[in-house]
Amino acid sequence: MKKLLLFLSVLLVSNVSFADSYKECVENTSRVYVGDDGILWLSFKDGGSALIKRDDPDFKNILTVVTAAHMANRSIIVRYVDPAATCSGPVRSDVRGVWLN
């Protein structure tokens, strides 16, 4: 019986999802600014903005995707660390990544 309980426990634990929580917002950039010691500022057409600091390991990749989207007039999906983030709220500095939509 103990072996059966142990087996079932291991089976249940192995199926647990360890997915991270995050918030994604579909955005269109209205302005993109890089300056002030390499800070990337994104202003969105529907309100809200985000900033990414130069020491972020994804800084160059995010800048590349955002520039391509802005030039092609395409939207992006911004992924924030905080799952309670609002898409049109105040300046967000917890950008986790950006998708080209």
Instruction: Tell the overall outline.
Output: elongated
Count of domains: 1
CATH architecture: Beta Barrel
What is the beta-strand fraction?
25-35%
Oligomer: single chain
The description of the largest β-sheet is: 3 strands, antiparallel
Which percent bin holds the helix content? 25-40%
The Rg value, from CA coordinates, equals: 19 Å
> What is the element string, with H for helices and E for strands?
HEEEEHEE
Structural class by SSE content: alpha+beta
Strand order of the largest sheet: 1-5-6
The poorly predicted ranges are none
Total beta strands: 6
Q: What is CATH's topology name? A: OB fold (Dihydrolipoamide Acetyltransferase, E2P)
Specify the number of helices: 2
CATH top level assignment: Mainly Beta
- Average residue pLDDT: 88
How far apart lie the N and C ends? 53 Å
Keywords: Signal
Describe this structure in words.
- The protein is of the alpha+beta class and 101 residues long.
- The protein has one domain (18-100): Beta Barrel (OB fold (Dihydrolipoamide Acetyltransferase, E2P)).
- The chain has 2 helices and 6 strands, in the order H-E-E-E-E-H-E-E.
- The protein has helices at residues 2-14, 59-72; strands at residues 23-27, 29-35, 39-44, 49-52, 76-80, 95-100.
- It has a 3-stranded antiparallel sheet, with helices on one face. A 3-stranded antiparallel sheet has the order 2-3-4, covered by helices on one side.
- Strand 3 (39-44) and strand 4 form a beta hairpin.
- It is elongated and about 65 Å long.
Short key terms for the protein model shown above:
OB fold (Dihydrolipoamide Acetyltransferase, E2P), three-stranded antiparallel sheet, single chain, 101 residues, signal, elongated, 2 helices, alpha+beta
